[in-house]
Write a structure and sequence with these properties.
By secondary structure, the chain is mainly alpha-helical. The protein is built from 12 helices and no strands. It is globular and about 50 Å long.
Length: about 290
């Protein structure tokens, strides 16, 4: 359990860094995700092919993985859309709602009663978001898009957990990742003409700097981070994973403060809300560790 938590926290830190990279890249959110997926898929394919680890799966499993991958792609589009509509700190803070979404959705899908402790702890994060939303109207559009991104990430985590435990546990995490991201790439490519029609942009091809940030995002913040998270998910619940994701705002916001000086853009309500989010994470981690010792 301890090694799984370490792997998950490394993955969460790397995911927090993607917000900073997303603001650096000039492409709009749709194209940014499209290039990120393309680089990641090519990288994974080459790695698995050289190691002789490419696995052929049944059509039924492939379709399920493609469906999960489509959710990942939509999550990333909304995630970067929120950053561009507000800023890194606001977007990452809204990810704290993952705990409440998971506390409600996971029991529903698994046909079990929700745990009151999980809901109460998650509500702390929601109250934090409400403080920011109510008192700082500049970022309401970004907050709404970020909440949609968070809901999609929760659905992805729950379905991923089911795939890891119920389908073929022997399938390696990088294989799952490859099939899922190929599915996301196919779906996003199919919708790209319509997307660019309704959201036109002057930047279709990444600049040299954009390519460097995209490569870092794909190789370190996607391939490495997703591999670590999938390994961790095998040993813990989707709720624990998603509540641990609340540390993504902590890591990402610190980086955004350092790189973009976003602390100068945020009001007092943000810090009160952010404090409640951190409190919910600390209490949940203490609860998990106490439970494991019993």
């Amino acid at each position: 359990m301890r090694s799984s938590l370490i792997k998950l926290h490394i993955a969460v830190f790397l995911w927090g860094f993607t917000g900073v990279l997303g603001r650096l890249i000039h492409l709009n959110e749709g194209l940014l995700v499209w290039y990120r997926l393309l680089i990641t898929i090519v990288t994974l394919f080459i790695l698995l092919w050289k190691k002789g680890e490419l696995e052929l799966l049944s059509t039924k499993i492939i379709l399920k993985l493609f469906g999960v991958g489509a959710i990942v792609a939509l999550h990333w589009v909304c995630f970067y859309g929120s950053i561009k509509a507000s800023n890194v700190s606001i977007c990452l803070t809204c990810l704290s709602s993952a705990g409440l979404f998971t506390a409600l959705l996971e029991p529903l899908l698994h046909r079990r009663s929700p745990q009151i402790q999980e809901i109460l702890l998650s509500l702390l994060g929601i109250i934090g978001i409400c403080l920011i939303f109510h008192f700082d109207t500049r970022y309401q559009k970004g907050i709404i898009i970020a909440l949609i991104a968070t809901l999609l990430s929760v659905i992805f985590s729950i379905f991923n957990k089911q795939l890891l435990t119920n389908l073929q546990p022997a399938i390696k995490s990088k294989t799952l990742m490859l099939y899922e991201l190929v599915g996301g790439f196919i779906v996003l490519t199919a919708f790209m003409p319509a997307y660019l029609h309704y959201f036109p942009t002057t930047y279709l091809i990444p600049t040299i700097k954009d390519w460097s940030w995209l490569l870092l995002m794909a190789w370190v913040c996607t391939v490495l981070a997703m591999d670590l998270s999938l390994q961790a998910l095998k040993q813990m619940s989707a709720f624990t994973q998603n509540l641990t994701l609340n540390l993504e705002p902590v890591y990402g916001i610190i980086l955004a403060f350092i790189v973009y000086k976003e602390n100068k853009e945020l009001g007092v309500s943000f810090y009160f809300g952010f404090g409640l989010i951190v409190l919910s994470v600390v209490l949940q981690m203490a609860r998990i560790l106490h439970y494991k010792k019993m």
